[in-house]
Amino acid sequence: MDVFMTIALEEAMIGLTEGGIPIGSALVHNGQVIGRGHNRRVQQGSAILHGEMDALENAGRKPAQVYRESVLYTTLSPCPMCSGAIVLYGIRKVVIGENRTFLGEEEWLRSRGVQIEVLQNDECIRVMKNFIAANPGLWNEDIGV
Q1: Is 52 known to be catalytic?
Q2: C-alpha span between 140 and 47 (Å, rounded)
Q3: For the chain, what is the largest distance between any 2 Cα atoms, rounded to a whole number of angstroms?
Q4: Which secondary structure element, helix H or strand E, spans residue 36, and what is its range?
Q5: Per-residue pLDDT reduced to its tens digit, 87-133
Q6: Are 124 and 4 in contact (CB under 8 A)?
Q7: Please, are residues 129 and 107 in contact by the beta-carbon 8 Å criterion?
Q8: Are 28 and 74 in contact (CB under 8 A)?
Q9: Are strands 70-74 and 24-29 parallel, antiparallel or unpaired?
């Protein structure tokens, strides 16, 4: 598995051990992780701290050029909110661990010029399938169902 997807998956597992939703993300600029995070909606009582949003928050304020040159790695296909942030900050490439358990806004991202790579990583799929089966109510809350 790609080193940066491994970091995103590590973040997902941190979220799971904290009692949260196991989705992780890493923002990479010129081969260096500049922000990493995981879904912390449960832990922080937050409406918006999905894994991608947490990674962006943890990267801190950066010049626009840094975002345009960065790649976002996420264990799960990005939802509409996270996809909006990707487009807002001009991130041009997103590497997705899997989209079988949830298909986010990949087509919309592509229509906005974002390059999408989906890995269909077995571990990402396993983690989400197990979580959704064990926590359907929490999962539905997270995706707005």
Answers
A1: yes
A2: 13
A3: 41
A4: strand 32-38
A5: 999 999 999 999 999 999 999 999 999 999 999 999 999 999 999 99
A6: no
A7: no
A8: no
A9: antiparallel
List the beta strands (DSSP E) in 78-125.
Answer: 93-96, 115-118
CA–CA distance, 142 with 18 (Å, rounded to integer) = 16
Marked catalytic residue, from 11, 52, 98, 105: 52
Residue 142: what pLDDT? 76
Q: What percent of the chain has pLDDT over 90?
A: 93
Q: How many CB atoms lie within 10 A of CB 55?
A: 28
Given its phi and psi angles, is residue 116 left (phi above 0), alpha (psi -120 to 50 degrees) or beta? beta
Determine the average pLDDT of the residues in 1-5: 91
At position 74, the amino acid (one-letter code) is T
Percent of the chain with pLDDT over 70: 99
